[in-house]
Design brief:
70% of the residues lie in helices and 5% in strands. With 171 residues, the protein is mainly alpha-helical. Strands 1-3-2 form a 3-stranded antiparallel β-sheet. It is rod-shaped and about 130 Å long.
Length: 171
């Protein structure tokens, strides 16, 4: 059984939903003029309009004015994408967003500089620490043994720094 509209208003809503741009009054006039067939009461008021009658009327006398179905979805998606793009640009202008690639590059440069500083100053740090220790050591044999081990300790310190900084590569 076909869908039935029991009022001009209901038929008008269906036509609008289908993308036909006309007023309810225009539809009423078209019904009165016989452009759209409908079953009527004795007094002339519309009793019912079948979907088939409404579709035939729309095909013959109306032109769609609004996008419908997939076209409407496509237009809505396009409008949303444009709005999102504008919002993103505005957020960048307000300074709410950062360029991730630039920030990562800046962080990598800072980390590389910090690593070079620690590696270059490692010998001075160790020498300063050993000088403080050697001031308290009176035994010459022990002093010479401490001085002889200095290059090994320096290498251990550099290896530890390398391990620490290499751990940042995956971060």
């Amino acid at each position: 059984m076909s869908e039935v509209f029991t009022s001009v208003a209901a038929a008008h809503r269906w036509l609008e939903d289908e993308g036909y741009g006309l007023t309810e009054r225009t539809l009423g006039n078209h019904l009165k003029d016989g452009l759209c067939q409908a079953e009527r009461y004795r007094n002339g008021k519309v009793k019912q309009i079948t979907l088939a009658q409404l579709e035939k009327y729309a095909r013959m006398h109306l032109v769609k004015t609004l996008p419908q179905g997939p076209q409407l979805d496509l237009k809505a998606r396009l409008i949303k994408e444009q709005a999102d793009k504008i919002e993103l640009e505005n957020a960048k202008k307000r300074g709410e967003l950062i360029n991730l690639a630039e920030e990562e590059q800046r962080d990598a440069m800072i980390l590389a500089g910090f690593r070079r500083h620690l590696e270059n100053s490692a010998a001075d740090r160790l020498q300063g620490l050993l000088n403080d220790i050697l001031k308290t050591v009176k035994d010459e044999k022990l002093r010479s043994e401490i001085v002889a081990r200095q290059p090994g300790w320096l290498q251990q310190d550099l290896d530890l720094l390398a391990d620490i900084f290499d751990g940042f590569v995956g971060v």
